[in-house]
Amino acid sequence: MRLETKGLSCGYGRKTVVEDISMFVEGGEVLCLLGANGSGKTTFFKTILGLLEKQAGQVLVDGRDVEGWSPARRARLIGYVPQARGAVFPFRALDVVLMGRTSHLALFASPSEEDVEKAEEAMAMLDISYLKDQVYTRISGGEQQLVLLARALAQEPRILILDEPTTNLDFGRQFLVMERVKSLSRRGLTVILSTHFPEQSFFYANRVLCFRQGRPLGLGSPSEVVTRENIRAMYGIDVRIISLDARQGGLKLCIPDSLVGCVQKRVS
Predict the structure, then answer these.
(1) Does residue 165 sit in the same domain as residue 267?
(2) Same-domain pairing of 11 and 81
C-alpha cells in the first residue's frame, strides 16, 4: 500500500511547523525520517494520522486523498507507535495491546477470543508475553514502548508509523524491534519511522527523508541523503561516515570527527 504526501504543511493553529513535504513510500519499503528534536517529525506523523488538521497539501493512500476519512477508517489501515508516555490508568499490558483491536469491533462490542489471540500473538512476536498480566504503569519505559508496538501490530495495519521506536530500549531490544520492523516490511507492510540514529537508516531503510527546521533537506537512498553535509545541517556536528563493506550503499557508521582519531588508534 502506497502512502504519499504532496506539498504537506502542518502545525498548530496559525503556527507552521512543517512546510511543503512531498514524499512517498510503497508497500514493502521502510522510509526513515532523520532530524533534530523540534524539527517537525512528530507533527508530520500526527497530520498524516489525522490527529492534527493539515494547513496545506495532501495525504494520499493508494492515490486516494484521506481528507474526510473517519478515524476508524484510518485506524484500520494505519498503525501508530508514539514515543512512550506514562499512562494514566493502571491497565494490564495485555489490555493495552487489545486496544489495537478497537477499529475491528462493532460499537459497544467486547473483544472476542480471536481478538485476544491476535493481541497475544503480537506480544509473542516481540518476546514480551511475560508482560501480559503486569500493570502497564509499573513496567519500564522500554517495556512500555514494546507494548505500544505490540498494540499497533495487533491492529493488523497495512501502514505502520513509528515515532522513535527504539527510544528507551536497551541495545538488544533496539536490535529486536528494528529486525521485527524490517521483517514486517518484507511481508508487504509500508513502514515510516523516525530515529536519531543515522546508522539505522543504512541498516534498515530503503529511503531517507531529512528534516531541518520543518523543511525537507533531502529525500533519497541512505547513501545519497545521509551525508556529512546533511548531518551537519541537521544536528550541528561534523561526522565521518565510515563504510563497513565495499558495496555501494552498504553498511556504514557515523562517527563524530572528534572521535575518529581515538577509534583509529584503538583499531590499530
Answers:
(1) no
(2) yes
Residue 205: which of 147, 144, 149, 252 has the closest Cα?
A: 252
Q: Are 122 and 100 in contact (CB under 8 A)?
A: yes
Q: Quick check: 216 and 210 in contact, CB under 8 A?
A: yes
pLDDT band at 257 (very low <50, low <70, confident <90, very high): confident
Residues 166 and 250 in one domain: no
Q: Model confidence over 194-231: pLDDT tens digits? A: 998 898 999 999 999 999 999 999 999 998 999 999 99
Q: How far is CA 157 from the centre of its chain?
A: 14
Per-residue pLDDT tens digits for 10-43: 999 889 999 999 999 999 999 999 999 999 999 9
Cβ atoms within 10 A of the Cβ of 102, count?
Answer: 15
Question: In terms of domains, do 7 and 23 share one?
Answer: yes
For 266, the domain range is 238-268
Mean pLDDT of 76-97: 84
Number of domains in the chain: 2
**Is residue 117 one of the residues assigned to a domain?**
no
Whether residue 154 has pLDDT greater than 60? yes
**Same-domain status, 223 and 262:** no
Q: Which three cell numbers stand for residue 153?
A: 501490530
Asked whether residue 174 falls in the same domain as residue 227, the answer is yes
The letter for the amino acid at 87 is A
The separation between CA 128 and the C-alpha centre of its own chain, rounded to angstroms, equals 19
Q: Which residue(s) pair with 252 in the sheet?
A: 243
* Cα 210 to Cα 175: distance, rounded to the nearest angstrom: 22
- The cell for 87 is 499512562
